[in-house]
Amino acid sequence: MYKCRHCGLEYMTDEAVMCPRCQAPKGKGTNFCPFCGAQTTPGQKICTNCGVEMDHYGEVGVKSKIAAGLLGIFLGVFGVHNFYLGYIKKAVIQLVSVLGSYIVYFSFIFSMIISDPYMSDESAGALALGTFLVIMIIVGVRIWSFVEGILILCGKIDRDGKGRRLK
Ligand SMILES: [Zn+2]
Ligand SMILES: [Zn+2]
Question: Which ligand has the minimum distance to the alpha carbon of residue 32?
Protein backbone atom coordinates (compact mmCIF):
# COMPACT_ATOMS: atom_id res chain seq x y z
CA MET A 1 0.00 0.00 0.00
CA TYR A 2 1.14 3.56 -0.71
CA LYS A 3 2.95 5.30 2.14
CA CYS A 4 2.78 9.02 2.83
CA ARG A 5 5.94 10.68 1.56
CA HIS A 6 5.67 13.27 4.31
CA CYS A 7 4.99 11.30 7.50
CA GLY A 8 5.38 7.69 6.34
CA LEU A 9 1.86 6.56 7.32
CA GLU A 10 0.58 3.69 5.23
CA TYR A 11 -2.62 4.55 3.35
CA MET A 12 -5.65 2.35 3.89
CA THR A 13 -6.20 2.29 0.12
CA ASP A 14 -4.09 3.09 -2.92
CA GLU A 15 -6.96 5.25 -4.15
CA ALA A 16 -6.47 7.78 -1.32
CA VAL A 17 -5.36 11.19 -2.58
CA MET A 18 -4.33 12.69 0.76
CA CYS A 19 -2.68 11.47 3.95
CA PRO A 20 -5.31 11.06 6.71
CA ARG A 21 -2.73 11.82 9.43
CA CYS A 22 -0.70 14.79 8.19
CA GLN A 23 -3.02 15.95 5.39
CA ALA A 24 -0.19 16.02 2.85
CA PRO A 25 -1.45 15.40 -0.69
CA LYS A 26 -0.42 12.05 -2.17
CA GLY A 27 3.15 12.18 -3.42
CA LYS A 28 4.05 15.41 -1.60
CA GLY A 29 6.92 15.26 0.82
CA THR A 30 10.50 14.01 0.73
CA ASN A 31 10.91 12.12 3.99
CA PHE A 32 9.82 8.59 3.19
CA CYS A 33 9.75 6.12 0.31
CA PRO A 34 6.14 5.58 -0.82
CA PHE A 35 6.77 1.88 -1.40
CA CYS A 36 8.92 0.55 1.44
CA GLY A 37 8.66 3.46 3.90
CA ALA A 38 12.45 3.86 4.24
CA GLN A 39 13.69 7.35 5.15
CA THR A 40 14.75 9.45 2.18
CA THR A 41 16.33 12.83 1.69
CA PRO A 42 15.08 15.82 -0.35
CA GLY A 43 16.18 15.59 -3.97
CA GLN A 44 16.52 11.82 -3.85
CA LYS A 45 14.79 10.30 -6.88
CA ILE A 46 15.27 6.62 -6.31
CA CYS A 47 14.85 4.84 -3.00
CA THR A 48 18.17 3.37 -1.90
CA ASN A 49 16.37 0.67 0.06
CA CYS A 50 13.94 -0.80 -2.49
CA GLY A 51 14.96 0.89 -5.76
CA VAL A 52 11.63 2.38 -6.88
CA GLU A 53 11.55 5.68 -8.72
CA MET A 54 9.66 7.56 -6.03
CA ASP A 55 8.10 10.38 -8.07
CA HIS A 56 6.35 7.91 -10.34
CA TYR A 57 5.53 5.25 -7.81
CA GLY A 58 1.81 4.52 -7.73
CA GLU A 59 1.12 6.23 -11.05
CA VAL A 60 -0.66 4.19 -13.63
CA GLY A 61 1.95 3.54 -16.30
CA VAL A 62 1.62 2.65 -19.95
CA LYS A 63 2.39 -1.06 -19.65
CA SER A 64 -0.54 -3.41 -20.05
CA LYS A 65 -1.23 -6.11 -17.50
CA ILE A 66 -2.87 -8.41 -20.06
CA ALA A 67 0.03 -8.08 -22.50
CA ALA A 68 2.64 -8.64 -19.80
CA GLY A 69 0.78 -11.65 -18.40
CA LEU A 70 0.34 -13.31 -21.79
CA LEU A 71 3.97 -12.64 -22.71
CA GLY A 72 4.99 -14.33 -19.47
CA ILE A 73 2.82 -17.37 -20.14
CA PHE A 74 3.74 -17.87 -23.80
CA LEU A 75 7.19 -16.31 -24.31
CA GLY A 76 8.33 -16.01 -20.73
CA VAL A 77 11.07 -18.56 -21.21
CA PHE A 78 13.03 -15.82 -23.02
CA GLY A 79 12.25 -13.24 -20.33
CA VAL A 80 10.12 -11.23 -22.77
CA HIS A 81 7.58 -10.16 -20.14
CA ASN A 82 10.34 -8.89 -17.87
CA PHE A 83 11.98 -6.94 -20.71
CA TYR A 84 8.55 -5.46 -21.45
CA LEU A 85 7.97 -4.43 -17.83
CA GLY A 86 11.52 -3.15 -17.39
CA TYR A 87 12.73 -5.80 -14.93
CA ILE A 88 15.92 -6.02 -16.95
CA LYS A 89 18.05 -7.98 -14.51
CA LYS A 90 15.48 -10.77 -14.20
CA ALA A 91 14.88 -10.73 -17.96
CA VAL A 92 18.58 -11.13 -18.74
CA ILE A 93 18.92 -14.01 -16.26
CA GLN A 94 16.03 -15.84 -17.96
CA LEU A 95 17.21 -15.13 -21.51
CA VAL A 96 20.85 -15.97 -20.86
CA SER A 97 20.15 -19.19 -18.98
CA VAL A 98 17.87 -20.51 -21.73
CA LEU A 99 19.77 -19.28 -24.80
CA GLY A 100 23.08 -20.10 -23.14
CA SER A 101 21.91 -23.66 -22.49
CA TYR A 102 20.89 -24.11 -26.12
CA ILE A 103 24.17 -22.72 -27.44
CA VAL A 104 26.34 -24.81 -25.12
CA TYR A 105 24.23 -27.88 -25.82
CA PHE A 106 24.31 -27.65 -29.60
CA SER A 107 27.99 -26.77 -29.77
CA PHE A 108 28.61 -29.80 -27.54
CA ILE A 109 26.64 -32.06 -29.89
CA PHE A 110 28.38 -30.57 -32.90
CA SER A 111 31.87 -31.09 -31.46
CA MET A 112 30.93 -34.64 -30.50
CA ILE A 113 29.77 -35.49 -34.01
CA ILE A 114 33.13 -34.29 -35.30
CA SER A 115 35.35 -35.94 -32.69
CA ASP A 116 33.41 -39.13 -32.00
CA PRO A 117 31.02 -39.96 -34.84
CA TYR A 118 30.57 -43.58 -33.70
CA MET A 119 29.46 -42.47 -30.27
CA SER A 120 31.36 -44.31 -27.54
CA ASP A 121 29.54 -45.22 -24.33
CA GLU A 122 31.33 -42.37 -22.64
CA SER A 123 30.06 -39.85 -25.18
CA ALA A 124 26.56 -41.25 -24.99
CA GLY A 125 26.64 -40.87 -21.21
CA ALA A 126 27.84 -37.28 -21.47
CA LEU A 127 25.15 -36.54 -24.03
CA ALA A 128 22.44 -37.99 -21.79
CA LEU A 129 23.66 -35.94 -18.83
CA GLY A 130 23.90 -32.77 -20.93
CA THR A 131 20.41 -33.31 -22.32
CA PHE A 132 19.04 -33.81 -18.84
CA LEU A 133 20.68 -30.62 -17.51
CA VAL A 134 19.49 -28.50 -20.43
CA ILE A 135 15.93 -29.80 -20.07
CA MET A 136 16.01 -29.06 -16.32
CA ILE A 137 17.17 -25.47 -16.89
CA ILE A 138 14.63 -24.79 -19.63
CA VAL A 139 11.75 -26.41 -17.75
CA GLY A 140 12.79 -24.47 -14.64
CA VAL A 141 12.74 -21.10 -16.40
CA ARG A 142 9.54 -22.11 -18.17
CA ILE A 143 7.76 -22.78 -14.86
CA TRP A 144 9.24 -19.63 -13.28
CA SER A 145 8.07 -17.36 -16.13
CA PHE A 146 4.69 -19.11 -16.41
CA VAL A 147 4.08 -18.47 -12.71
CA GLU A 148 5.11 -14.83 -13.18
CA GLY A 149 2.64 -14.54 -16.07
CA ILE A 150 -0.16 -15.88 -13.85
CA LEU A 151 0.85 -13.55 -10.99
CA ILE A 152 0.73 -10.58 -13.39
CA LEU A 153 -2.71 -11.56 -14.72
CA CYS A 154 -4.20 -11.98 -11.25
CA GLY A 155 -2.64 -8.73 -10.04
CA LYS A 156 -0.05 -10.09 -7.60
CA ILE A 157 2.66 -8.45 -9.71
CA ASP A 158 1.00 -5.14 -10.48
CA ARG A 159 3.86 -2.74 -11.18
CA ASP A 160 6.50 -2.22 -13.82
CA GLY A 161 10.20 -1.94 -13.05
CA LYS A 162 9.82 1.76 -12.21
CA GLY A 163 6.98 1.18 -9.76
CA ARG A 164 4.19 2.37 -12.04
CA ARG A 165 0.94 0.46 -11.82
CA LEU A 166 -0.01 -1.67 -14.80
CA LYS A 167 -3.01 -0.73 -16.91
ZN1 LIG B 1 1.25 11.83 6.17
ZN1 LIG C 1 11.86 2.24 -0.89
Answer: 2
